[in-house]
Every structure is written in C-alpha cells, then in structure tokens.
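Sec-independent protein translocase protein TatC: structure, please.
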Amino acid sequence: MAVSMSRRSNPEGRMALLDHFKELRNRLFKSAIAVVVGTAVGFIVYQPMLAALIKPIRDLNENEGRQATLNFDGVASSFDLMIQVSVFLGLLVASPVWLYQLWAFIVPGLHKKERRLALSFVAAAVPLFIGGVLLAWLVLPNAVRVLTDFTPSGGSNFISAQVYLSFVLRLLLAFGIAFLLPVVLFGLNLAGIIKGKQLVKSWRITVFLVCLFAAMAAPGADAMSMFYLAGPMLLLFFGAIGLCLLNDRRRERRAVKRAAETEATADIGTPGTELGNL
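Here you go.
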C-alpha cells in the first residue's frame, strides 16, 4: 500500500542523488550475494566442469595424434584455477539475478509502457548471455585445434594450466558479454540517450567496431572464432537498431498526440466561475 501511494505521489519515480547511490548499493549487494551463492555451486561442480574444459586438449592426443599436456607450474596453481572457474560459474549461475538488478536500477526512470517493454527485454538478456557462452563453448575445440596447428612438426604442446584456463574463460565471457551489448543499446534508447536514426547513420562505424571487438575478444590467431562472434553480434545489433527505430516512432506519435491535446485544451476558454475563484 505504501509503495502504491508513493508511486501515485511520485509517478515519474524521481529520486535525489543520495537515494540513487543507496539504490545502486542495494542492487550491487544483492548481485554480490547471488554471485557468492553461485560460486558455492561452482565449487561443487568444479571437477566435472574442469574435465569438460580440458577435453579439447585430450582430443588433440586421442584424435589428432599430437602430444599436448596441461601443466600446473606452481604449488597453488590448482587452487587458483579452482577459484577462477568457480567464480566464472557463479557469474553464470547468478546471471538472472545480476541482470535483473542492473535493469531494475534503470527501470524506475522509465515511463510505464517503456518499463513493461524494458522488463520484457530483460527476459531476453539472460538467454542471450547464456547463448553467447554456449556459442563460445562450441567454438572452443576448433579454436584450440587451429591455434595448436601452428606447432612445428615433431614439436609438443606443454600448455600452462593458468594460461589455458584464462584463455577459455576470457573467450566464454567475451561471447556472453558481446551478446548483451544489443540489450544495453536498446536500454539506452529507452532512456532517451540515443536514437535509432543516429545508429542507422553510423552503421558503418558500428560494423567496424563489432568486427574490431570480435577480433580482440577472440584470442589468438583463429579467424573462424572471430567470424563466429561477429556474425551473431551484427544480427543482434541490427535487430536492436530496428527496435530502437520502432520505439522512436512510437515516442514521436505520443509526443504529437500530447501536443494536439494541449493545443485543443488551450483553445477552450476558462469559465467565468473559475476566473471568479481565482
């Protein structure tokens, strides 16, 4: 009831700067708790997850007939890798929570209709993030095979576990975050920061930046992983641009309707009784 009365007395959801910081703190705290719980789950499933991550190296020995081993070059290396993998799994498991908290921090500044549209798009953010991670998982064996193909004939691959796991986790996170960028783009449009026409005019720069990001995010010299990342990103970006254009058109129609109603109201004279009251 108190929330309903607060919303009616403050329909635009305006808050002071200090209140914004408090809201941000609460959202970050909830996200951190979710990540910690997810990390605990990551510790439980660490062993089977690690076996799946190093499978591409085992396949090099079994299917390619090459010598490749994963080396732990420090006393605490195994423990450090367990922490890294568990935190990554925590981020993945807690993604519905921290993505919701991110958007819940933005949503109060939007109008009612925009808020519903934003929440529906939040529902797309989680599968997009997980879909990006899954796509990277499919790309991983090919990336490992192509990169190790540069080993000279007769040579062996003694791969540091720290370097390999950093490579794998960076690849998975890069794909997941890349698939979230169109969602952020549409969110900025809902907030009125950017417009669809601006994005259409700069489509060449967008394509260049997407390809540049894909080239930097896909580690090593594997060109195929770059194309695997750039292709879906471009489709998602242009889909987000289309949604931005539709939202801009809807916003313009609403502004025209509001202006027409204001003009019609201005043409109506003020009754004498109201003038007397004034």
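Notes: Confidence is low (pLDDT under 50) at residues 1-13.
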